[in-house]
Each structure stands twice: as structure tokens, then as C-alpha cells.
Amino acid sequence: MSNTIVVTGAAGFIGSHLCGLLLEKGSSVIGIDNFITGSKSNLEELEANKNFSFVGADICNLGKIDADVSQIYNLASPASPIDYQQLPLETLDAGSAGVKNMLELAREKNAVFLQASTSEIYGDPLEHPQRESYFGNVNPIGERSCYNEAKRFAEALVMAYNRKHKMQTRIARIFNTHGPRMRANDGRVIPNFITQALAGKPITVYGKGEQTRSFCYVSDLIAGLYALINSSYSFPVNIGNPTEVTILQLAEKIKSLTDSNSEIVFKPLPKDDPIRRKPDISLARKELRWEPKVDWEEGLKKTIEWFKGNC
Ligand code: UDP
């Protein structure tokens, strides 16, 4: 059987780390990205490996892939709130036509297909912590809907291919993740707070900072994706770290870990910003024998170290 794996969104933060892991495990990797939000510098380490090849393309307009492919990880999509709100049509295309193209490629190659889904499909959740059985509370026309609804449609598409064509498919619901190679300006909370704290600028907490998130370090996240695609479980699985913190706690922790004199300031809470988010990961523990290993303080220290050298 072929040991060649396709990763879309390879020049992105999670995609580039995933490609690195797959190369380490001895696979050949074909990375695909159109650089709409990914960056060439994320590919530098990978391109030094002879088992890595790269196709610069949009998954909505992908040319032919000649190689035999055994697995496809479909990660290509704008993913941070400011990115997808600036690129709403591209985000909807990636989650619909793009996913369909990649599913067709998986069907042609008889490859296992993993779709990167998201905790955003739960919207502003009324169930806490969120289990995979929860259907979500999503505003279909809100500012986040181009992403949430595209990802929900993508899950429906994956399940339709699974049922109609009896394909091997996986759905990973990825919760907030951080680590090296996040873009300093992607607008997400951890890059914002770290770059602000390191520059001695005000740390911008939105709302009162009482909203919660649960942050997973990227090495744990990609280990979860790897375990999932190599399992035989075809329904959605939450992949994230269940340690829940308020955004104000996060601001204070980053301020103390960076020894920063920055003041913490409060800005308006964006519309449809989920109030509480924490994955229930019992299913991943049971089906994948996976759970995060890096605790939140240790993970933050690693991310801070990286930003110190890169911003
Ligand atoms: N947030 C904040 N200050 C910032 C950026 C984000 O308080 O400078 C908050 C945001 O309102 C949200 C949380 O941090 O409640 C996580 O935001 P992020 O954009 O990282 O991801 P989300 O989980 O909302 O997709």
C-alpha cells in the first residue's frame, strides 16, 4: 500500500506541524496550499526533506494528483475569526466546493479522508462541556456563520460520502490550539496577548474577560489527528484540551509568564463570541486512547518562547 499522504493547508499553522509529524513517521507527504492565510516560511523546514513535495493550489481548483495516496488530511480553510470575516466567500467555498473536491480525490485514490472540523460548529453552546452528540447553537447569518456553517456543511458532505460511497472518513472537531508558527497578526487571543505583553503594549481583553476557552498545545493536537485518521471511528471526535480558563485568567497568566508591565484593558466583546467552550474528550480517550500531554502553562511557555524569537 502507498505511504503517501496529502495534507491541505500545509502552509498553515497546524498543517505545517502535521506534515512534520507525518514525515517523522516515515511517510511521503504532498502538501497543498494557496497561501491565502498560510505562509511560505512555514514550509522551510519541510522543504528540506526529500519526502516532502508541495503543490501551490486552491482546493477548489485542484489539478491532477498522480501519486497513489493512502490518506488525505483536509485542513485548508481560513480559520481565525478576523481571517474568515475578511474572507467570507473564500471560507464558504473552501468548506463546500473545496471539501467536495478533496472527497472526490479520496474516492478516486481509495484513501482515508480526515476533515478538520471545529468547535465552532457548536456555536455559542448551551451544553457544557461540549460532547459530540450536541447539535450546537449557531447563528446561521451572524458574522461567524461563513465559517461555522461552512464547517457544518462540510461535516454533512463527509457523512454523505461515507454513507453513499462507503468511504473511510474521519471528522476531527478541533478546539482552540496554539503553538509556534501562529501568525502574530491573525487576531487570535494567544498571539494578540503574547505580542502585546512582549511589546509592553496594553493587553486587550474583550468584554469582561469572563468568557472561557480551553487551549490545546499543537503537538497534542496533531497527535490527536494522527490517532483519529489511523482509527476506524467515522463519527466526529472532539480534539482539544479540556482545561478551561477565562480570557482574563489567560491575560494575567501571559502577563506573568512574560514578566510584562503591560496594563490589561477592556474592549467591546465581538458579536456572537461564544461564552463558554470546553471539550468533553471522553470519546477521544475511549476510541483513540488519546489525551493531551502538555499542560496549559507548559504549552504557553513554549509558545511565548517562539514568539520571542519571531516577532
Ligand atoms: N479575545 C480577547 N482579546 C483579543 C483577542 C480575542 O479578549 O485580543 C477573546 C475573544 O473575544 C474570544 C477569545 O478571546 O472570547 C478567543 O478568541 P480567538 O479569536 O482566539 O478564538 P475563538 O475561540 O473566538 O474562535
How would you explain this protein's 3D organization?
This protein is of the alpha/beta class and 311 residues long. The chain has a single domain (4-180, 216-241, 276-293), classed as NAD(P)-binding Rossmann-like Domain (Rossmann fold), CATH 3.40.50. The protein has helices spanning 13-24, 44-47, 81-86, 88-109, 145-165, 189-199, 218-229, 247-257, 282-288, 296-310, and strands spanning 4-8, 28-33, 52-56, 71-74, 112-118, 169-174, 177-178, 203-206, 212-214, 216-217, 236-239, 244-246, 264-267. It has a seven-stranded parallel sheet, sandwiched between helices. A two-stranded parallel sheet has the order 7-10. Strands 8-13 form a two-stranded parallel ribbon. Helix 1 crosses helix 7 (218-229) and helix 4 (88-109) runs parallel beside helix 5. The radius of gyration is 19 Å and the shape is globular. The termini are far apart. The mean pLDDT is 97. The chain binds uridine-5'-diphosphate.
Relevant terms:
two-stranded parallel ribbon, globular, 10 helices, 13 strands, Rossmann fold, binds uridine-5'-diphosphate, single chain, alpha/beta, 311 residues
Question: What can be said about this structure in brief?
Answer:
The protein has 311 residues and is an alpha/beta fold. It has helices at residues 13-24, 44-47, 81-86, 88-109, 145-165, 189-199, 218-229, 247-257, 282-288, 296-310, and strands at 4-8, 28-33, 52-56, 71-74, 112-118, 169-174, 177-178, 203-206, 212-214, 216-217, 236-239, 244-246, 264-267. It has a single domain (4-180, 216-241, 276-293), classed as Rossmann fold (3-Layer(aba) Sandwich), CATH 3.40.50.720.
